[in-house]
Amino acid sequence: MNMMKHRGYIARVEYDSEDRIFVGHLAGINDIVGFHGSSVDGLEAAFKEAVNEYIAISEKTGRPVQRPYSGNLMLRVTPEVHAAAATAAEAKGKSLNQWASEVLGNASQI
């Protein structure tokens, strides 16, 4: 997956072979914010402009902007998974939170 980051927002990016452009949308919010560009530089500029404009319009209209994910994650797992994860974290010399963050980051390729 191709992603871009700006001001805490992340965008998914795809290539539209029919129109020969890169197309992106903000991820992690319910509002629909899209942008496109025919080059990487153009795409990056359009992404930053889209984020900045989204925030400006929200402030101007008094509608709160949707923020990307907070970084707080609550998981429900079986006691066996919890124990195995805690043991794996301890074996690595890390807290369960540090270990889980590293594992999730590696799994999601961020």
Automatic annotation (TrEMBL):
InterPro entries attached to this UniProt entry: Ribbon_hlx_hlx, TTHA1013/TTHA0281-like, Uncharacterised_HicB
Source species, domain of life: Bacteria
Pfam families reported for this sequence: HicB
Descriptive protein name: Type II toxin-antitoxin system HicB family antitoxin
